[in-house]
Amino acid sequence: MPEPILRLEAVGKHFGGVVVLEDVSFDVRAGSRHALIGPNGAGKTTLFNVISGVFPPDEGRVLLDGLDLAGVPSRRRIGMGMARSFQNIRLMPHLSVVENVMLGQHARPGLLRKLKPVGLLPKSRERDEALEVLDRFGLDAYRGQVVANLPYGIRKKIEVVRALMAEPRLLLLDEPAAGLNSTETAALRDFLMEVSARGVTLLVVEHDMPFVNSLCEHVTVMNFGRRIYDGPAAGAREDEAVLDAYLGTHHKKGASDAA
Amino acid sequence: MSGYMAGVLAILGINVIFAYGIYLTAAAGQLNLGGAGFQAIGAYAAAILSVELGFGIVSTIVLATLAGALIGFLIAFPILRTRGVYMVLATFAFAEVVVGIILNSDTLGGAMGMIMFDYIETPAVLWTAAGVVAFVFYLMSTPIGLAMRAVHDDEPVADLMGVNNRAIQVAAFASGGALAGLSGALYAFYFGFVEVQYFNAFLSIFVLLYVLIGGTQTAWGPLIGAAFFTLIPEALRIGEDWRFLIFGVLIVLMMIVRPEGIVTRDAIDRIVARLMPGDRRA
Ligand SMILES: Nc1ncnc2c1ncn2[C@@H]1O[C@H](COP(=O)(O)OP(=O)(O)OP(=O)(O)O)[C@@H](O)[C@H]1O
Ligand SMILES: [Mg+2]
To answer: Which atom of ligand 1 is nearest to the CA of A222?
Structure first.
């Protein structure tokens, strides 16, 4: 069994008196496509914030490649191979699409590279790379536009592209399919499959279960800040606790919607 | 070039450099309402270096610029502990402190000011301004410039993208202080004297308005803003009193029609699209 790329050890987090994460432990295997699911308010986004260093855990440890991240500033983590997207889109509103994507290259090493007048050069490796990924995502037409004016689904995709630009080994995606239509969701799934095939580990928070089932082979389920399931995706669909806490109600909700 | 024109252009050049000094912090998301303080530091540093210590013009200007940078660097640390309107007030207070120190200092001539021995002419000011404009356009086109704009838009996310927010903000204050100091040194050499009354609160307000009304999203903003507010009053031959009124009216109008400034990304995109219909360059 290879060393996990990401290991959570008894992670706990509370805000004031409210316990949001409690004793959360699981491993993310290098190269895997791993889903993190659970009802609203389960603590999934909070866990992403702890992993990416937005705030430290109150208890427990986060290890990247076996290295304890305590004391590693959040801004250094992207350079260590970990990039993320945000549930509530956090693109830079005054930057163009391609500029937002190129911001994803910021953590790459090299001071000289940071002094290159990319914005004035008609052609540069940095811009070409960004344009290439935008192209592959079908976002070419938006490259020069300011993101504030773009539709939700488009901005959601740009977030994924920006995170990818950092060339991460571990990609954390917080509800990447939210707000996408079924065609776009399918395209996103295919694209993430491709990303995965290139060796990038995926940890994906998502409510869209068909998307999760078709993308991820491993699932961790959370409820009320606790891990209630961690194992193969197929197993989660038969697990009592998971059905009770999440999938069951999910299906019931779907049924009542249909009724 | 008539003497009058030369004078207007020199003031324009000084104002443009000054505006870029304020722009660099604004582009990274901080409002500096202490512009007059930084300009005064440059002007008085030039006066001391040139008159008292006998430095040549070029070395004086370089050292006065560095003095602005050093003060900008040092002041950044306490100022960056504050946020929003408190930061604006802190920078404002800084400028008042600078002026207060000068007023009460005999070495600096107090309210009498200092007289310069050496002079520079309009072309020197304009060439320097051109160099500053080129430098800022260059800087804003680099990944560092992109990071500055990212810090302006969303600090926590910029941080997660690997941007060192604190370093960017301190550097913005230091380089902004350098340009404001440079503009002060040029002012001293061009007008031949420095008097503390010139570096008053209105000056700080005006230069910040040049920048905000020009727009902080692109490097064009301060150029357009400074040019607009230097040249329009001259063209209309209006005096100081009317200048205030026009400023007031324009600011209110701007807040209503173009809250992000005259030059915005959108505006540039539209102009480019119109001039070069086939061009899809970002
Ligand atoms: N900064 C904060 N301060 C106080 N409470 C917070 C904070 N961040 C999150 N919470 C609370 O923590 C709980 C978990 O929130 P979190 O956003 O992690 O849930 P989630 O699993 O991502 O839910 P969703 O599926 O709706 O995105 C919620 O009750 C939320 O209100
Ligand atoms: Mg969430």
So the answer is: 21
